[in-house]
Every structure is written in structure tokens, then in C-alpha cells.
Amino acid sequence: RKRDDVDVEKLQQAVAELDTSTPFKDFTDLPLSDPTKAGLKASHFVTLTDIQARAIPLALKGMDILGAAKTGSGKTLAFVIPVLENLYRGQCVGPDAGLCAMIISPTRELAIQIFDVLYKVGRKGHLFAAGLVIGGKSLREEQDALARMNIVVCTPGRMLQHLSQTAMLNVDNLKMLVLDEADRILDMGFQRDLDAILDYLPKDRQTLLFSATQTRKVSDLARLSLRDPEYISVHESA
Ligand code: ADP
Ligand code: MG
């Protein structure tokens, strides 16, 4: 066996044994891959915020999550770390693995911010191919890039355009879906696009849904997209 396989096996065991009832304070307390640990360290992330402390251990274990916490509480890392880790342990990397994770954001600006965080934390040795699908390039250019991506950060309208128009786009291997700022996605009128995207995706996947507010529309979306979710709501300042 290769050294990498042994490392992945050890990590899988550590995550299986992870006790989610104990509060985690620092990122070094979590069973994370060496590349993620190095990325967090290089980015000077040391202590978990409240939403991160509650969401990350459960998300590492593969649970679906509905997380609500106000703007600025650190929701991005609460899903970026589980995406990197769960794909790493699932060895969902390289051109043969295909598209394994989709992160949907309401706006291009927010998608770019998420991509920057993904890059920052993932830059120290992770081998994933990640990209943006937010328009602004030709559909053709995006299609070619998408065919090589393991992780896509996208806006709903543009992603749906690819799913409905790109015959070659295979999403059968998708393991994780993240809906970030779900309240804003819905406020901006993307409900139907989201429903249509969900129809294309494998049902056997992990879904993480994050929102700044808990609204009726968000809970309706949660019912549609999540399976037996853990509800995490953080009200106090993080
Ligand atoms: P939200 O999506 O909840 O609005 P963000 O993920 O955008 O919040 O994070 C808000 C700010 O907090 C960012 O500048 C981010 O770099 C910082 N941040 C997030 N998590 C941590 C952490 N664990 N330690 C220090 N700073 C953090
Ligand atoms: Mg955010």
C-alpha cells in the first residue's frame, strides 16, 4: 500500500471515532488531513468560531446540516473544511474522479470569496481541481473547465444552464452539495433554479445548508434538499 492510503485509512478511523459531544476549541484538536492543517496554519486560523465548532465535527462524519448563524460568524470555513476533508478521505481527486462537490452561492462576488477561502485552506498540498462557474466567461470555456473540476463554486442560474445544456457534464459522482446563504438565494428568486438543480443531482449525497436567517422558505428548501439534518443555530456573537 502507498503511504497516502495508510494516511487516509488512519484519518477515516479517527473521524469514525470522533466524539461530537465534546467541544472543540482549536483546529489542531480535529482529525484533519496534513494539507488542510498546513493550509489553516499558513492562513493563521487557530480557534474555531461557534458555528464551526458545532458544524465541522458533524459534517466530517457525513451528516447533513442546516446551519444558521449571522453574517461574519465564519460559515465559509464551516463548509470549506468538511468539503476538503470528506473528498480527501473519499479520494475524490483528479480527472477520473469527476465532479464531487458543488458549492452554490447567491452572487458572483460571494462565489469568488468562497473560492478564495477554498484556495487559501487548500493550497498546501491538496490536489483537487476547483473552479468557478459564475458566468462572465463563455459557456464553452466554462464547459471545458467544468469537465476537469472536482469542486465547483457556482451561482444557481449559471450552474443550471450547464446542467441542462452540457450533455457531457456528469454529476453521478457528486458526494457533497453546499447551499451557502440559502436565505439570500431564495430572496433573489432562485427557488425554481435550485429545485431544477436538485433534480439533476444524485440523492445519495451529503448536503450542507447555511443561512444567516431562518425563514419559512429556508425550512421549505431544507425539507427538499436535506436528509435527516442536524439543526445548528448560533445566536450569540461568535
Ligand atoms: P459568514 O459567512 O458567516 O458571514 P465568513 O466565513 O465570511 O462569515 O467569515 C467572516 C470573517 O471571519 C472572515 O474574515 C474570516 O476570515 C474570519 N474567520 C472565519 N473563521 C475564523 C476563525 N476560525 N478564526 C479567525 N477568523 C476567522
Ligand atoms: Mg458567508
From TrEMBL:
Residues 25-53 form the DEAD-box RNA helicase Q domain. Coiled coil: none annotated. It comes from the Eukaryota. A motif (Q motif) lies at residues 25-53. Residues 56-232 form the Helicase ATP-binding domain. It is found in: Nucleus, Nucleolus. Belongs to the DEAD box helicase family. The Q motif is unique to and characteristic of the DEAD box family of RNA helicases and controls ATP binding and hydrolysis. RNA helicase. This is ATP-dependent RNA helicase. The lineage of its organism: Eukaryota, Fungi, Dikarya, Ascomycota, Pezizomycotina. The chain holds residues 23 to 260 of 799 of the full protein.
